[in-house]
Amino acid sequence: MKLIIAHLPNDAFESVRTELLDLGVPRMTVSEVQSSGPQSATMLRSRGVTLRTHLRPELRLECVVPADQTLAVVNVLRGHASTRWGLGGRVAVLDLEGLHEDSSEPHSFPDDPRLDAAVH
Question: Given a cut of 90, is residue 90 above it in pLDDT?
Answer without folding.
Answer: no
